[in-house]
């Protein structure tokens, strides 16, 4: 499930920005995350820039005998502003 969602999000970011995008393992793993993958875009100066991060979270509650899974997508306007410059 997360892999398909990440690919779709990567494609969406690429379509919105008109820039090459990639998925890359994050250089930092938050304590609440089982896995964090970043979505980066290639800027005009050939520098890759993180636009969003996606995490499979570990800090989800349990309901009865069922453990819940939480998939987080973190993206902010501040990350997108750099694309306009």
Key features of this structure:
alpha+beta; 25% helix; two-stranded antiparallel ribbon; 85 residues; four-stranded antiparallel beta sheet
Characterize the structure shown.
- The protein contains two helices and six strands.
- The model has no long low-confidence stretch (mean pLDDT 86).
- The strands form two sheets. The protein has a four-stranded antiparallel β-sheet with strand order 1-2-3-6. The protein has a two-stranded antiparallel ribbon with strand order 4-5.
- By secondary structure, the protein is α+β, with helices and mostly antiparallel strands.
- A hairpin with a 5-residue loop joins strand 2 and strand 3.
- It has helices spanning 2-17, 77-81, and strands spanning 21-25, 33-42, 48-57, 62-63, 66-67, 70-75.
List the topology elements.
Layout lengths: L1 H16 L3 E5 L7 E10 L5 E10 L4 E2 L2 E2 L2 E6 L1 H5 L4
What is the strand arrangement across the widest sheet? 1-2-3-6
Mean pLDDT reading: 86
- Radius of gyration, taken over Cα atoms and rounded to an integer in Å: 15 Å
Outline = elongated
Q: Secondary-structure element sequence? A: HEEEEEEH
Low-confidence stretches: none
Structure classification:
alpha+beta
Range of helix content: 10-25%
Calculate the terminal CA-CA distance, rounded to whole Å.
Answer: 34 Å
Q: If helices are DSSP runs of H or I spanning 4 or more residues, what is the number of helices? A: 2
The largest pleated sheet is described as: 4 strands, antiparallel
Percent of residues in β-strands: 35-45%
Number of beta strands? 6
């Amino acid at each position: 499930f997360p892999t398909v969602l990440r690919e779709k999000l990567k494609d969406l970011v690429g379509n919105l920005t008109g820039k090459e995008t990639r998925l890359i393992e994050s250089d930092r793993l938050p304590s609440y995350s089982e896995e964090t993958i970043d979505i980066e875009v290639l800027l005009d100066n050939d520098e890759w820039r993180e636009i969003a991060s996606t995490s499979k979270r570990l800090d989800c509650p349990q309901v009865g005998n069922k453990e819940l899974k939480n998939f987080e997508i973190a993206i902010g306007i501040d990350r997108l502003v750099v694309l306009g410059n």
